[in-house]
Design goal:
The chain has a single domain (3-311), classed as Alpha-Beta Barrel (TIM Barrel). The protein is 38% helix and 12% strand. The chain contains 11 helices and 10 strands. The longest helix is centred in the middle third of the chain and has 15 residues, at 104-118. It is globular and about 55 Å long. The protein starts with a strand and ends in a 12-residue tail after the last helix. Residues 15-312 form the NADP-dependent oxidoreductase domain. GO terms for molecular function: oxidoreductase activity.
Length: 323
């Protein structure tokens, strides 16, 4: 496993990040396809044994049960100081006023709740899951700064938003001497490349680490277009992200995978890892082979001709994933 700095920080993270949305009790929250604890633990252990030290979850994943499962697994399979643990805040955790969003009250309540579920005194990376248009960014950033100063988070990051929102947050933090976002968790893969227009150049210019979510496009890049899975059939959000025209890109991935004699997932991940500025794709895993394929993708070097073959069929998409 290779390790790189997260943006222009001194924090060393594995070249792959384990996305933990897959791990959670299916009867809690909105994801009926998640794996309960007894099925999640072997995969988390495998990831750690493969050298993945970067784990990403969120308070809303399976109504908090993802954090609970991940926290117990870290205690059992590793040492806390060896793990870069990331979680997120924004989504609604309870009905009524102040049950979600990025107000000072919500952030202070949710960081404490996440730490209890994770069974730790701090997280390494605390991220806003989305932009909150109903809360002034000054209020959000000062609250996050205070979370860092209280020792409850080491760094802060952001997730899917317009590039101008990210730049506004960076400028506001600098203007006030507050802790700055060090990472961007955004939607980027061979089927959705709109982030190449503004967000990736911004992150390169500002030294922001990029940790893309859904690098395999909800699994579409790991199988033939007409194949399906239980998750694909029950993932309402995923059904809004991709279109029929993406079939041509999936076919190109399949052709190169067949020519190389490797799984499709390795080709799609190798393309993403080669993008300038990408620090660590966030990989989901529901089977042991998903992890071994992801690690193997780090050694796969695509030629310029293969990259052109993969990128040529792309069609512009409407902006997706910001809400």
């Amino acid at each position: 496993m290779d390790y790189v700095k997260l943006g222009n920080t001194g924090l060393e993270v594995s070249r792959l990040c384990l996305g933990c949305m897959t791990f959670g009790e299916p009867d809690r929250g909105n994801h009926v396809w998640t794996l309960p604890e007894d099925q999640s633990r072997p995969l988390i252990r495998q990831a750690i044994e493969l050298g993945i030290n970067f784990l990403d979850t969120a308070n809303v994943y399976s109504d908090g049960s993802s954090e609970e499962i991940v926290g117990r697994a870290i205690r059992d399979f590793s040492r806390r100081e060896e793990i870069v643990l990331a979680t997120k805040v924004h989504g609604r955790m309870r009905p009524g006023p102040n049950g979600g969003g990025l107000s000072r009250k919500a952030i202070f309540a949710e960081i404490d709740a996440s730490l209890i579920r994770l069974g730790t005194d701090y997280v390494d990376l605390y991220q806003i899951h989305r932009w909150d248009p109903s809360t002034p960014i000054e209020e959000t950033l000062e609250a996050l700064h205070d979370v860092v100063k209280a020792g409850k988070a080491r760094y802060i990051g952001a997730s899917s938003m317009p590039a101008w929102h990210m730049m506004k947050a960076l400028f506001t933090a600098r203007l006030n001497g507050w802790t700055r976002f060090v990472s961007m968790q955004n939607h980027l893969n061979l089927l959705y490349r709109e982030e190449e227009r503004e967000m990736l150049p911004l992150c390169l210019d500002q030294g922001i680490g990029v940790i893309p979510w859904s690098p395999l496009a909800r699994g579409r890049l790991a199988r033939a277009w007409d194949e399906s899975t239980h998750r694909a059939e029950t993932d309402a959000f995923g059904k809004t992200l991709y279109v029929e025209a993406d079939r041509a890109v999936v076919d190109a991935v399949g052709a190169i995978a067949a020519k190389r004699g490797v799984p499709r997932a390795q080709v799609a991940l190798a393309w993403l890892c080669a993008k300038p500025g990408v620090t660590a794709p966030i990989i989901g895993a529901s089977k042991p082979g998903h992890l071994t394929d992801a690690v193997a993708a780090l050694e796969l070097r695509l030629t310029a001709e293969e990259i052109a073959w993969l990128e040529e069929p792309y069609v512009p998409h409407r902006v997706a994933g910001f809400s």
